[in-house]
Amino acid sequence: MAACSPFQDVSSGKPLFMAVYVTVFAGVLFSTLFIVSSLYSASNSDNKKSQFTVGSWLSPSSSLPRPQVDVIGLRNQSTSVNISSDATVENFLTRAIWDLPSPDSKIPDLASFRLTREMVKYRAKDNVIIVTFGNYAFMDFILNWVRHLTDLNVFNLLVGSMDTKLLVALYWKGVPVFDMGSNMNTIDVGWGSPTFHKMGREKVFLINALLPFGYELLVCDTDMVWLKVYVISVFGAYNIGIFLWRPTDTSKKLAKEWKDLLMANEKLWDQSGFNDLVHKVLGPSVEGENGIVFAYDGNLKLGILAASIFCSGHTYFVQSIYQQLRLEPYAVHTTFQYAGTEGKRHRLREAMLFHDAPRYYDSPGGYLSFKPNIPKALLLDGAHTLESHFSLVNYQLKQVRTALAIASLVNRTLVMPPIWCRLDRMWFGHPGIMEGTLTRQPFLCPMDHVFEVNVMLRDQPFEEFGAKIDFREYSFLQNPRLPKQVKESFLEVKLCNQQSSKCHETNQTDRKGFIKLPKHSTQEMIVEFFSLYEDVKVIEFSSMMDAFQGFHNAVSERRFRNRVQGYVGIWCCVMNKDPGHIFYDMFWDEKPDWKPVPGLRS
């Protein structure tokens, strides 16, 4: 069994956290990948130690056999929906991934989607099957997960459906799906909720159901993506919310004990239970195996993986270790983020790793973008302190606030700028960046470090918050999925001094191809200006500094302020302070004495 800690010095392998970080480390350990393997082969009667070799489990699929195997169900299935059982059943076992069913066909009876040995055998490659699972709320993550694998020519995969709505949707999308019989709600359950913990338990049930089939099982979270094919052999170690279980007696024993532990205590978190089990025995090191130790019952091997290429949300999005060391990452998991499911999705979008529907890349009202103006001194001068961090972020917030106001007036989707930070964000007190990491200062920080992405996407009452302001990630205009008609419909706007006679020639470009717009433009001027270019898909401002004078209507002003004040979150956290978090303030510049004070909401 192998695991990876993303908080480990990549040069020395030295642990980074002291006692204060133990709780976080435990969560990190579980969210990374584990390889579960026995030191003794189940078929080895003379108890000689055997080496297990894993073939190229992430490899192009070859032609697959049509096995005749006894059916073994995951559990007793039940459903409250009526899916026609007398339909002409297409053999979804043999259909290629993304091969859509005939539109005039009917979906097979729900019982046909039971997890069976035959289903697994048909999809498996080199005795390995790759599995993820979820409910309808995570359908876009699941499709993204499948798309990344099939783009790598990896097809030995299955998706477990926790509700019938997802099962039906995936069937019609041409994704190989089986029914887990969970009867779960179709909505996003939210981290830490009872239903969230139920999902973790379902993973344990799934592992226990699949291992008896005799295949090596790679279980992945839906909020991770594979970036590169990885061929492994002899005790390979991997990372990122993934489990690779070998169907040996020891791994089956661990899976069963894990399940029994959770069944006996409904309040026990699946992560805690697993960590308790694998730490029953921890050590000694395995002779001749670098970084591998004996674990669990002494018949299991636990290894540590390089988080520089199997990336957590921190090593990929914050430290960018793979870039600093000029490595090619194999996978990334959207951990260490602060805006729920919406934040995970946005992280992948920022990295251009999310397959959105075509309409996402061509909004009807077009897009507004701007070039952020950040003085070099704010980025680089002086020590990296609370004061210098907030000075840098606040300077950017003021520009984003102006851009949001203009976008709301002209009904365009705002392309957010990249956000620069001096300090990292965590859930606990820390010295600014995590000791021993490769975090550079300043660094391009994920949007959820500063903005409440989930709040920005939330539908809110118009009377109190005004119209919703759509936005896109900072990398949006560089995304290769952007259609040609959007890329080529582009206009640059340069702010000019109102005293200049040429500043008001808004229908003519200057020598550099810019359209001019006066600084401190009124609401009427902004609306009139954009009305001249309604057919232009992307309008980019050279700067947002002093672009907008303000709303002329007090009601519009109030609604806008209510909306955007909730867009910003907190920085966390000052060491040895309770509370230690500091609120960002979208209107900080209106308060002459504003300072970053822990716990104080202005």
UniProtKB/TrEMBL annotation:
<feature type="domain" description="Nucleotide-diphospho-sugar transferase">
    <location>
        <begin position="156"/>
        <end position="228"/>
    </location>
</feature>
<dbReference type="InterPro" id="IPR053250">
    <property type="entry name" value="Glycosyltransferase_77"/>
</dbReference>
<dbReference type="GO" id="GO:0052325">
    <property type="term" value="P:cell wall pectin biosynthetic process"/>
</dbReference>
<keyword id="KW-1133">Transmembrane helix</keyword>
<dbReference type="GO" id="GO:0005794">
    <property type="term" value="C:Golgi apparatus"/>
</dbReference>
<dbReference type="GO" id="GO:0052636">
    <property type="term" value="F:arabinosyltransferase activity"/>
</dbReference>
<dbReference type="Pfam" id="PF03407">
    <property type="entry name" value="Nucleotid_trans"/>
</dbReference>
<keyword id="KW-0472">Membrane</keyword>
<keyword id="KW-0812">Transmembrane</keyword>
<feature type="transmembrane region" description="Helical">
    <location>
        <begin position="127"/>
        <end position="146"/>
    </location>
</feature>
<feature type="transmembrane region" description="Helical">
    <location>
        <begin position="16"/>
        <end position="40"/>
    </location>
</feature>
<dbReference type="InterPro" id="IPR005069">
    <property type="entry name" value="Nucl-diP-sugar_transferase"/>
</dbReference>
<protein>
    <recommendedName>
        <fullName>Nucleotide-diphospho-sugar transferase domain-containing protein</fullName>
    </recommendedName>
</protein>
<feature type="domain" description="Nucleotide-diphospho-sugar transferase">
    <location>
        <begin position="238"/>
        <end position="348"/>
    </location>
</feature>
